UniProtKB/TrEMBL annotation, chain A:
<dbReference type="InterPro" id="IPR017871">
    <property type="entry name" value="ABC_transporter-like_CS"/>
</dbReference>
<dbReference type="InterPro" id="IPR030947">
    <property type="entry name" value="EcfA_1"/>
</dbReference>
<dbReference type="Pfam" id="PF00005">
    <property type="entry name" value="ABC_tran"/>
</dbReference>
<dbReference type="GO" id="GO:0043190">
    <property type="term" value="C:ATP-binding cassette (ABC) transporter complex"/>
</dbReference>
<keyword id="KW-1003">Cell membrane</keyword>
<keyword id="KW-0472">Membrane</keyword>
<keyword id="KW-0547">Nucleotide-binding</keyword>
<dbReference type="InterPro" id="IPR003593">
    <property type="entry name" value="AAA+_ATPase"/>
</dbReference>
<protein>
    <submittedName>
        <fullName>Energy-coupling factor transporter ATP-binding protein EcfA2</fullName>
        <ecNumber>3.6.3.-</ecNumber>
    </submittedName>
</protein>
Automatic annotation (TrEMBL), chain B:
<protein>
    <recommendedName>
        <fullName>Energy-coupling factor transporter ATP-binding protein EcfA2</fullName>
        <ecNumber>7.-.-.-</ecNumber>
    </recommendedName>
</protein>
<dbReference type="InterPro" id="IPR017871">
    <property type="entry name" value="ABC_transporter-like_CS"/>
</dbReference>
<comment type="function">
    <text>ATP-binding (A) component of a common energy-coupling factor (ECF) ABC-transporter complex.</text>
</comment>
<dbReference type="InterPro" id="IPR030946">
    <property type="entry name" value="EcfA2"/>
</dbReference>
<dbReference type="InterPro" id="IPR015856">
    <property type="entry name" value="ABC_transpr_CbiO/EcfA_su"/>
</dbReference>
<keyword id="KW-0472">Membrane</keyword>
<dbReference type="GO" id="GO:0005524">
    <property type="term" value="F:ATP binding"/>
</dbReference>
<dbReference type="InterPro" id="IPR050095">
    <property type="entry name" value="ECF_ABC_transporter_ATP-bd"/>
</dbReference>
<dbReference type="InterPro" id="IPR003593">
    <property type="entry name" value="AAA+_ATPase"/>
</dbReference>
Length: 304, 287
């Protein structure tokens, strides 16, 4: 695995357009994964090795993007972050707690909330508002606090206007935001999202991304985003690239997206700005590596 | 445009749960035509009525008001609507959730069997459809669908519709949730099928890059109304209007708009990265 250490703010020749998040100073490790192996149906028919020797550290307050082809082990990996799965070998420590110890499960799940790909699987109530409140009510909080948290989660996800709709009359994208709201209302220390954008329209995707960035910058929430959208991944502090159950690359976005040969090999696209820059280089124009956003590309082209 | 559209929608209105407190006017006053053989996209923000619209095209939904003709059949007429499923294939969102047979073969064979074909013809159709979806009939036919990966299950589900050789194929977010490579592969397969069989294709998508890459014409919905219609290039040259609707133009077109805003004389109606490279190369060579 190639690993690039982030050395403070990324030093490249481009002016930052604020499109990348600030690197967090906090060095406190929130999730530590050591030599993680996960085998489904071990010793049975259909045995499948989904993760092989994955090690990584996620810092408190970090915004981490997880990318890689379908079937590369991304979803299996994140299910270890709140003990939905436990290691076949190796260990996962979340907020100082070992996921293999059953006594820690509820504390770990209180700290780490996961939003899955398919929102239909996690909607439980017949009214939107009740659905958001479902988890919070079970925490035994005073009604006032429940109301406040539900309000905040609805407004953060832009659902206040449809609060009294039954979920089955929501669109696919609205359901996806509802699932995010339900988890947000729990005020987790760490929010994990497994391809939340796959059913969202461009504005919904941009809004969700801004919501995540805002939450993360407020310093309250560590965000782990599994995504196929390289533009979104490019906005994270750090990217990890998975392939065939292994972690093959990790580092800040500009370093990761400079590894063209490796990314091509596993069929991973670059953000559009990087792809277009690459096309221009091939045509003989000296466009530097490390351009990840359209704004950076525009300012480079205008300075020439 | 062809004078004889395969789908003709006239002043369509659809209301969910009419007469209840949850009544939602989902479509209002939609009129459009889709020509035979066209690759047509329906785009719009979530909840704009895209899925509701296309579910009228094979008679799953009937219009509250207005008229729709598909393959010459008036879908308001129950008798005419009844046989439409043979001619118009609809692939729902996440179709892999609807696989229910014990083997891949039986699942793909479900449609052709219902159409009354004999065993040999059913077998021929199943094998062809699996091949058209890039699957090897010999290896997957006997496998239970749940043993396959999500991407393969999606292909099996689509093969089940292809095996009915529809004249019109409607795909509602066919590639959602697949990785970029899987998306491209699926769309390549679908495009090959379109060319081979000469079917009319209607694609519902949130992915602007995908619409730009594959389709000839587009309709844009907003809150149940048709707000734009035109060639894909024309529609994607209206970045401001699309953004106001919660949509966007493909990334390469966004780039060109930004360059234009910064005072550069560039075309903004580009659809692909390659076209953007071409246009910027022209700009750089001039200066």
């Amino acid at each position: 695995m190639r690993e690039f250490k982030a050395t403070g703010p990324v030093s490249n020749t481009l002016e930052s357009h604020g499109s990348r998040l600030t690197t967090h100073d906090s060095n406190e490790i929130f999730i530590q994964v050591k030599d993680l192996v996960h085998i489904y149906n071990r010793g049975k028919r259909g045995e499948f090795r989904a993760l092989s020797g994955v090690s990584l550290e996620i810092k408190k307050g970090e915004f981490l993007a997880v990318v890689g082809p379908n079937g590369s082990g991304k979803s299996t990996l994140i299910m270890h972050f709140n003990a939905l799965l436990t290691p076949t070998e190796g260990e996962v420590i979340v907020g100082g707690l070992d996921t293999r110890d059953p006594r820690h499960i509820w504390e770990i799940r209180r700290q780490v909330g996961i939003v899955f790909q398919n929102p239909d699987n996690q909607i439980v109530s017949s009214l939107l508002e009740e659905d958001v409140a479902f988890g919070v009510e079970n925490l035994g909080l005073p009604p006032e606090e429940v109301r406040e948290r539900v309000e905040e989660a609805l407004s953060l996800t832009g659902l206040s206007g449809v609060r009294d709709r039954p979920p089955h009359l929501l669109s696919g994208g609205q359901k996806q935001r509802l699932a995010v709201a339900g988890v947000l209302a729990m005020c987790p220390a760490c929010l994990v999202l497994d391809e939340p954008s796959s059913m969202l329209d461009p504005a919904g995707r941009a809004e969700l991304m801004e919501t995540l960035v805002r939450l993360n910058r407020s310093g309250r929430v560590t965000v782990i985003l599994v995504t196929h959208f390289m533009e979104d991944a490019a906005r994270a502090d750090k990217i990890i690239v998975m392939n065939e159950g292994r972690l093959v690359l990790t580092g800040p976005p500009d370093r990761v997206f400079a590894e063209h040969a490796l990314l091509d090999e596993i069929n991973l696209a670059l953000p559009a700005a990087a792809e277009i820059s690459r096309g221009l280089r091939r045509r003989g124009f000296p466009v530097p590596d490390g351009i990840l956003s359209l704004d950076d590309l525009v300012s480079f082209l205008c300075r020439r | 445009m062809n004078n004889n559209p395969i789908i003709k929608v006239e002043n369509l209105t659809h209301i969910y749960s009419p007469g209840t407190p949850f009544q939602v006017v989902s479509l209002e006053g939609i009129s459009l035509e889709i020509a035979r053989g066209e690759f047509f996209a329906v785009i719009g923000s979530t909840g704009s009525g895209k899925s509701t619209l296309v579910q009228h095209f094979n008679g799953i939904l009937a219009p509250a008001k207005g008229k729709i003709w598909v393959c010459g059949a008036d879908i308001s007429d129950k008798r005419q609507r009844r046989d439409l499923w043979r001619r118009v294939g609809l692939v729902f969102q996440q179709p892999e959730q609807q696989l229910f047979e014990e083997t891949v073969f039986d699942d793909v064979a479900f449609g052709p069997r219902n159409m009354g074909f004999d065993q040999d013809e059913v077998k021929r159709r199943v094998e062809k459809a699996l091949q058209q979806m890039g699957l090897d009939p010999a290896t997957v036919s006997g496998v239970p669908p749940f043993r396959l990966s999500g991407g393969m299950r999606r292909k099996v589900a689509i093969a089940g519709v292809l095996a009915m050789t529809p004249e019109v194929l409607i795909l509602d977010e066919p590639a959602a949730g697949l990785d970029p490579q899987g998306r491209k592969q699926l769309m390549d397969l679908v495009e090959d099928f379109r060319r081979e069989e000469g079917v009319t294709m209607v694609l519902v998508t949130h992915n602007m890059e995908e619409a730009a890459l594959w389709t000839d014409r587009m309709a844009v919905l907003d809150k149940g109304r048709l707000v734009m219609e035109g060639s894909t290039r024309e529609v994607f040259n209206k970045a401001g209007e699309l953004r106001a609707l919660g949509l966007n133009v493909p990334a390469p077109a966004q780039l060109m708009c930004k360059l234009r805003a910064a005072g550069k004389q560039v075309r903004t109606d580009v659809l692909t990265n390659e076209e953007a490279v071409e246009e910027i190369a022209r700009l750089l060579s001039e200066t």
